Amino acid sequence: MIRSVLTVAALLLAGTAQADGLVDNVNGVALDSRGQVVRFGGILVDKDGKVVRLVPKGEKAPKKLDWRSDMGGRIVMPGMIDAHGHVMSLGYRALELDLSNTRSLADAQAAIQSYARSNGNRQWILGGGWNQEAWGLGRFPTAAELDAAAGDKPVLLERADGHAVWANSAAMKAAGITARTVAPAGGRIELLPNGQPSGVFVDSAASLFDAARPKPSPRERNAAFLKAQELLLSTGITATADMGTSVDDWLVFRRMGDIGQLRVRIMSYGAGLDTALTIAGAGPTPWLYGDRLRMGGIKLYADGALGSRGAWLKAPYSDAPKQTGLSFINDTTLLNLLSRGTMDGFQFAIHAIGDRANRQVLDAIDELASSYKDDRRWRIEHAQVLDPADLPRLGKNGIIASMQPVHATGDRMMAEARLGPARLTGAYAWATVLRDGGRLAFGSDYPVESPNPFVGWAAAFTREDPNGQPPGGWRPEEKVTREQAWKAFTQDAAFAGFAEQKFGSLLPGQKADFIVVDRDPVAATPAELRATRVIETWVGGYKAWPLKEEPKATGR
């Protein structure tokens, strides 16, 4: 609901210090600190790239300005924040073989064959995005089907969710994998009826290829980052959490920051305790490069994914009665890791999709919360399927449910098959989380899904896919409001990364991170919202996208 003009004016006039610049003549729309819609006509920005105040519509511009940018009456809104993504994976996927748009096994084979012909100089064919559910295959693909498309060159392709790989015979031979190979803990090797590996390796079993597959060079890593950054900024994302930053990933981020090429803000979560300690030492790093980079947390995994049947369930899968998924970590180890990292001040973000994995994480947090009573902001990543009895526990101990609206609309038919009707009550339960006092932070899990936040925003308050299916929404009782979803993609996503004092809204004192779009997101229909086009993206008072030339190093 739009607030009265007088009330809004009072809010916008907070803070009247002299600004250095003015983003003027805008049709501005934002959320205030209570999540209510406000309108404004300009943004006063200081020399440090922070918002001094939002200027009410009709107010005359200050006469003394260092710069002024006229937006021509276009829609301006706060930059969007993705609470859960994988920056480098997004770049690699864009530069390697991408099967995310394939709709059948034959379609995928044709794409693989074409890519192999066009990239004959590559030692291995790498990529991902395949999804046997989207293909209607009813099973995992096989090495033989990959051999038919790519011949004798090694091929290794990640499933869309990143929790399985599809390998051909040449890749398995290069990795020394045979019928005698045993899957590591937390992994599963899919087998053919004759006992031979089928070509699909679930979760930690994918690590069997680590020694054999070629590693990207520093130049390739740089290229992947720049591609990912371009994709994020072009969809209106000004800040993102990077879930599972490796040492090599961190070095790329630092290289980009050192040469002034780091434009998007990254809230980094190290890939495990050892990685975080190697990078950050005995605690979170400070904010670097003008609040563009910080490692403040640690990413852990409790289980796998639903699509590859790696999510750890209390009862067997409805469509695979002999399987309950994969547990990645035992209770004692989980407690030890959480305690060790928490003592050094790191935040934890724990991947948990199945109801058994979520209970394990909730139990661990309950046990530790009495010892660490300060603001820890425990995060559960995905929190996808919970026993209804466990849902109220997300409102305890300051737990943040870091969830992805597009997973519900994309997974619904698969989830129904995997879980059966009884367990759907606790699945993708956004409204229940809020009602029980929990806090949401929304993202996309890119490159599993598109990073486009407007698609996720529409999914959150409709629970319909881009085709409007199912009409009225899937399990519509779990819809959130348009404003709640927007807040989860901005202020709450920043809060989830301990960044709410830095960015996430356009309140005075925050960084001037905003986007120029082609339509009013509050007035748009769901279909129109999904089709939103980003015209410009500004980070810290500078235009970060599109650029005619690369930015120079700056303090903002």
TrEMBL record:
<keyword id="KW-0732">Signal</keyword>
<feature type="domain" description="Amidohydrolase 3">
    <location>
        <begin position="70"/>
        <end position="541"/>
    </location>
</feature>
<dbReference type="Pfam" id="PF07969">
    <property type="entry name" value="Amidohydro_3"/>
</dbReference>
<feature type="signal peptide">
    <location>
        <begin position="1"/>
        <end position="19"/>
    </location>
</feature>
<protein>
    <submittedName>
        <fullName>Metal-dependent hydrolase</fullName>
    </submittedName>
</protein>
<dbReference type="InterPro" id="IPR033932">
    <property type="entry name" value="YtcJ-like"/>
</dbReference>
<keyword id="KW-0378">Hydrolase</keyword>
<dbReference type="GO" id="GO:0016787">
    <property type="term" value="F:hydrolase activity"/>
</dbReference>
<dbReference type="InterPro" id="IPR032466">
    <property type="entry name" value="Metal_Hydrolase"/>
</dbReference>
<dbReference type="InterPro" id="IPR013108">
    <property type="entry name" value="Amidohydro_3"/>
</dbReference>
<dbReference type="InterPro" id="IPR011059">
    <property type="entry name" value="Metal-dep_hydrolase_composite"/>
</dbReference>
